[in-house]
Design goal:
The complex is a heterodimer.
Chain A lengths: L6 H9 L4 H13 L1 H18 L11 H39 L1 H4 L1 H30 L1 H17 L2 H12 L3 H14 L1
Chain B lengths: L2 H9 L3 H23 L2 H17 L10 H19 L14 H8 L3 H18 L4 H11 L5 H8 L3 H26 L1
Helix pairs in contact in B: 1-2, 2-3, 2-4, 3-4, 4-8, 5-6, 7-9
Classes of the chains: A mainly alpha, B mainly alpha.
């Protein structure tokens, strides 16, 4: 049997999970141990006070209406702030793109070149990369990387390819030549 | 319509369902907030904030689980945050600066009964104030929300063994405080 002064015993006694034999022993102990008797009486009194505690005052009658209105208001504000944030983000993104990509982005021949020549640029870069790898690392690595990059070229959306091409074209003379050719073809 | 249907509808933004949830759970949430904070005004604010947070995060609620422990957990976190932001001692003399209790005691049909009720409420709140917020929460959920040990574990992230231990320590602390108060009164 557990020590009757241990926390575990007292927890079980309070929960009412003592066996009949244990409960009899407990009553006998309380009769003989004054400290335990006083503490037990205090705990029983506390239990009664807590269980009989009155309910707090009621909420105001319009509480539901006010709460739902506040919830709806906050949700609307979150949507408004979300939209404003998106507009600001797009404006900043376009501003940065204009700053770094310069006239290529807003010239129609630059746009056409990037869209039409994006995949050609990608294939040319892939070709150069694979040749260097073949010389440095051998056939296997080149074949593996070549397969991965070729698949990526086929599966990448054209818009992403065009965007990458924009960045490339601001730094590449070839891009400027292509751009002139496309302009002449359009005329 | 079952509670699950109301929750699903509220997740999709149905106002009637949102209203139903607020109406149904305001009382248990308020009870917990009042026991935790000890002030009617603050408990009302905390109740409103807790319910709004629950509605805002309704998309995170798993439909198969019971709703009450989930919403009371949000309320408990709200109360714990408020307790951390202020001093723990609350003067309950007169029950608030607006004299709410005095008004009620003076105008209700049975002012004597109201006074007895307010004294008992004061006594209980003074006992709860000798506990830390976590123990106060466990006592509140056990005695006034009628939660089982498992439900308390769900609402508090504690194990059942830890809950039993905290409950026992809290009872002992409150009993000791009650005995001291009675000795002082005597």
């Amino acid at each position: 049997m557990l020590d009757m002064h241990s926390d575990t015993w007292w927890e079980r006694a309070l929960e009412g999970t003592l066996s009949p034999a244990e409960a009899r022993s407990w009553q006998a102990h309380l009769a003989s141990c004054a400290d335990c008797r006083v503490q037990w009486a205090a705990l029983e009194q506390l239990d009664a006070v807590l269980r009989d505690a009155p309910f707090p005052p009621l909420l105001p009658v319009n509480f539901t209406v006010r709460t739902v209105a506040k919830f709806q208001r906050r949700r609307r504000m979150r949507l408004v702030w979300g939209m404003l944030g998106t507009i600001v983000f797009v404006a900043v993104a376009f501003g940065l793109m204009y700053l770094f990509l310069g006239p290529v982005f807003f010239r129609i021949d630059g746009v056409m070149t990037a869209v039409l020549a994006g995949r050609t640029l990608w294939l040319q870069s892939l070709n150069r990369l694979l040749l260097s790898l073949f010389n440095a690392r051998g056939v296997f690595v080149s074949l593996l990387l070549g397969t991965v990059l070729l698949l990526s070229l086929l599966l990448t959306p054209n818009s992403v390819v065009a965007t990458l091409a924009f960045v490339w074209l601001t730094r590449d003379k070839w891009g400027r030549e292509q751009s002139r050719r496309v302009t002449r073809a359009m005329v | 319509m079952e509670e699950l249907e109301f929750i699903r509808s509220a997740q999709q933004g149905d106002q009637a369902a949102v209203t139903w949830l607020v109406e149904t759970y305001q009382r248990p949430v308020h009870l917990l907030c009042y026991r935790m904070l000890g002030d009617q005004g603050e408990a009302e604010d905390a109740t409103q904030e807790a319910l709004i947070k629950a509605l805002n995060h309704l998309d995170r609620f798993e439909l198969g689980r019971p709703f009450r422990p989930w919403v009371l957990r949000i309320a408990a976190n709200e109360c714990t945050d408020r307790l951390r932001r202020r001093k723990p001692i609350i003067s309950l003399d007169g029950m608030g600066e607006d004299g709410a209790w005095e008004w009620q005691a003076g105008h209700s049909p049975n002012p004597e009964r109201q006074l007895i009720v307010s004294e008992r409420l004061t006594q209980v709140q003074q006992l709860l104030e000798c506990l830390n917020p976590q123990d106060r929460l466990v006592v509140t959920l056990f005695y006034w929300e009628d939660f089982s040990y498992d439900e308390i574990a769900q609402a508090t992230d504690l194990s059942v063994a830890a809950i039993k231990s905290r409950l026992f320590r809290a009872r002992r602390a409150m009993a000791s405080h009650m005995t001291i108060e009675e000795a002082i009164d005597a």
